[in-house]
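Office hours follow-up: a student asked to see two folded examples consecutively, so here they are.
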Amino acid sequence: MSSFCLILILVTSLAYGDAINLTGASVHVAIHSPGSVVETAIRVLVEEVDKRTGLKWPKVSALPEPASVIVLDLDSDMAAESYSLTTREARVTITGADGRGLLYGVGHFLRTMQWKPGTVYFPRTNTGACAPAYPIRGHQLGYRFQANCYDTWDDVQYEQYIRELALFGCNSIENIPLEDLRKSPHMPLDRRTMNRRLSEVCHKYGLDYWVWTPAVFDLSDREKRAEHLAEHKQLYKDCPELTGVFFPGGDPGANPPELVLPFIEELAGHLRRHHPKAKVWLSLQWFNEKQCDDIYAWIDRERPDWFGGLVAGPGSPPAPETRARLTDAYPIRLYPDITHTVRCQYPVPWWDSAFSLTLGRECINPRPVFYAFIHNYFAPFTEGFITYSDGINDDVNKAVWSRLGWDPACNVRSILVEYVRFFFSANYAETIADGILALEKNWEGPLAGNGSVDGTLVLWQRLEQSLPELAENWRWQTLLVRAYYDAYTRQRLLYETSLEEEANLLLAAAKDTGAGEAMDAAFAVLNRAETEKRAPELRERIVALYDDLFHSIGLKSSVEKYQASGYERGCSLDFLDYPLNNRWFLEDEFKRIRALPEEAAQVRELEKLAAWTNPGPGSFYDDIGHPGKSPHVKRLENLNADPVTVLNYSPGFWWWDNGFSRKRLSWQDTLDYPMTMVYNGLDPEAVYVLRMTGNGDAHIRADGYALTQSITEKNIGEIKEFPIPKALTADRQLTLVWDAEEQSELNWRDYATAAEVWLLKNRRE
């Protein structure tokens, strides 16, 4: 990594101070380059200023002394892609090393100018020179049905979005031209046409155009292999610009290296006939250790000149490990997942299940502080990144990565201030930036105890009232709906938790009231979540905002309403009212219990349900994957130490029945092994039994002593029990360690996990 960036910026609010008034400015172009990226940069400057201010800056052939003017120039002696900004009297000069550099200089100007309708000022102190730290800075914008919005876009919308990414420092766009053959009901252009148009747009803006092309069939099938090669050849011929072809080793695809390597070599031959400088890149996703070793050996032996390098993405060896193994002759490119929150590369650590069950895997997810850390931790091992994105839900994250790819020393809040100033308002830039940071904080810790979620909504409601002109701005809508959704979910959580507590009291009294009456009364209480909904005004606003988002940017937040490709793909609206207590589980249990022939048996089952999480004095219960209900779990939460380890030992959230599982909530958030739990203040005279639910086997050591199971079950919801030798608790303390299981040959869905743990005080001796 080599970088130089010295820009002095003292811009915070609309206190203009020592600034150049550019309200009546003109644009002077010191070079003549028709039909080039320079012409694109000029047009972008004029058009984007007009959109925000209504000012229509004319282009002039001579410098208008002494009137205010923006001068655009080139200096080939500067480093590639770099730019400088200088000010003198009433003049601002933007100089680029090349067309790209000029475009990035225009982006800097637009992000930092002070503006309001009819007015533009530019601070004299906002000057200096800047070159990018990393040569690859891009985002994947695949035109396919699976995306949560891209398939609804025409080429005009695509161009605008690509333009905006470029203005934040992006230089690469990656399309998905061939994968996901399902027919989208939304696509305004056929895929071949859009594939070509995206290449043309990248050429127009001087950006690199990449394609992500997995082989989702068996490469030993000669007929399918030939058909797929023909698709590639047609694609290469269609594209005026093509920089790189990224072939993922897996996710999707399951071909071994002995089939993959000859195939990508053949791809490279066809690619270079149409694009001589283009290269083929490979990820090690889903390859096992031996397969990775074979690929490294092949690279060391063959050193192919058509090979671009390795891509480090989800399910592949981490970038530090890859860099240590890969010869320095080839670079590494990151492929970070910035679009997902659970069941992904970078899950939200210890996310409250109330969010995972409702917002879901592909929700609107501004995580600027988290992703800034992830970028700066892994980027030094690489030549840059092209992120994995499946929609606009991660738009803030794209801006953060784009800016950090240019300058990793950028302050996160400063990036957000620029984001807000460019897309929303210069006058409210600081406040809105803090509002975005507050949305990220909403997801920290147990939701029930996070009262700041309600304060965040109040802030966004005040901004909403102050800035009605932003009502149709899709980026504004994404942030608003998150503020409303988070607060609505918290209010529902508190309400529905209290309903379950009330229902449990009724079940506990079944011996006195009768089992049938107890179940009827408990059902009526639980059903108030439907008949007496909490905060209906918040719900109504959320529904309206998601509808606005579908019409403003094509965000498909529902399968039924907006024809999304699947419930896991951005469909937060479909889970808006998912139960945040065990109402569905209890309803199903009531049906089972009513079928029992004996009243006494029914009462016993109801008492068991009532005491599920409250095992009595001296005993303990942990919902292992819940941040607010697992006080005895020893956590790894210091991301700065090792983000890979910390994220690997955060809870996972299961996806059953298309997200509409009726299982107990505590079974849906689990922790993998190894796992440690610590207890203090135990009764030295008591005998304890460890009880747990979870998936698979469990090998547990108590203070180093291997426990023996007395009840052995392996399925979610079934009970395992381990008696604790009394001598181990004589010191009033107990440390339990679940050893890691050998699972290298298992699908991750079959891994051993812990869902719940009870330490039950049985009796005194």
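And the second, which I mentioned at the end of office hours:
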Amino acid sequence: MSNDKQNNQVYRGAFALLLAGILSKVISAFYRIPLQNLTGDIGFYTYQQVYPILGIAFMLALYGFPAAISKFLAVNGKEQHHQKMYISIFTVMMGFAIFLFLTLFLLSPVLANWMGDHLLTDPLRHVSWVFLFIPFVALFRGITQSDEWMEPTAYSQMIEQLLRATIIIVTAILIYQGHLHVYKIADGAMIASIIALSISFIFIYLYTKKNSTWNDGHSSRSIPISNLISPVIVAGLIISMNHMLLLLMQLADAFTMVPGLLTFGETLREATATKGVFDRGQPLLQLVTVVGSSFAMALVPQVTKINWQISREETIEKLRLTTKYCILLSVGATVGLFTLFPEVNQLLFQNQLGTSSLRILTLSLLFTSLTVTTASTLQGFGYMKWTAIILFLGLWVKMVLNYFLIPLWGVDGAAIATVSTVIIICMTNFLLLRSVLNGDRLFVIPWIKVIIASLVMAIALTILKQTAFYFISFENRIALFLFVIGSVIIGFIVYAIVVVKWRILTRNELAPLPLLNRWKKG
């Protein structure tokens, strides 16, 4: 294969993987809306209690183990790609998966007790089975990625997410119709995950065999399984950790929120319902964070240590542009969502419960996209272990803050804890990145103009809300939908006009944005 063809395949595969990742996250965010509508806040709470565990399983299957396997196979050379090697890798992964399965299965009563709800024992026990299906799909994703062939991973990821969403919604419908108990939503999530991983495995296996990626040759030497623990298991965990910012925040809430609310004075049923209401913010946070960070990173070519060594000034400019895009997107999304949250809450979840605490939670959007972007940049410089450590420590910061703040301020305490934790992680990433860049200034942003642009948008949206109140019945969901969509479009236009007219983005910075660039020329 010529270099040009190989490069085209790599770029095409990388784009397919990026697009599949974004679409999967969007699907993941959106299916939870009908899930809550059908099962109520208690059903949504139950799902969100087991979701972080399922999320960890899918991070290992999608990002962690495949990337670690791909790197290991690349380091060992093509001659080592053979069935015996693959079986050894599969064996060490399956051993780790069995360990996770047994730990979660046997300790489920203890974990449910820590979560403050003994009814979660069976749901936790059931979702533990998902870990046993990870090695199958992870192995073949790693094999194909080692050949710089990303399409199988991208396609299998889309298959997984669509199947999961479909089966979970079917389970929610059965609960809504009274055929299943509300806590059975966790069983539906488990069944959906197992079926999704199984079908994904069958697809990628057939896809791989058809294209002869599997090598039937024999090895000149064998590698002891113990030698695979570090490059596959440990490396896989580190890589997975770097994709878990919001997942870890949800994991901390799963273990600390209900006990904290019980201490605050709520009954168990009130606490579980409150947790379900608070979890409404997660799909919105996930959607904005993924779209914002992916958009910023896609507009600017990836920054790596090699780029830095070749052209220091060009690399700094790319970093500044990436962070500037990210901040403008984050500020606009945060202010817009904060202003419209009562209507968004009513539209998506059928009432305005929890709006005040969810508005506080929305403030974390100022930092989540920037946190993901700075972490990705640090990983490009080779600081993957450090970004994973920072996230892991962030989990414990969130746990401690929840422990102290929720008994004092209830659900608002959980929101404040999330915002504070994300700020701490973001600032730590920023300080580490600044150290890597030898103190070069990273943010070159006209902050006053950005603040004024966001205030102008907020004022415009507030005036629009007050005016629409006299002409639209917000009890009508279709009318409310049209109002929210219209408000989002108008808010974006107002914000974009101020950004362009006040030269918050320069002519060169507008170049990758055709629509805004056209406005500028106009």
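Two things to take away from it. The radius of gyration is 24 Å. Residues 252 and 396 are 8 Å apart (CA to CA).
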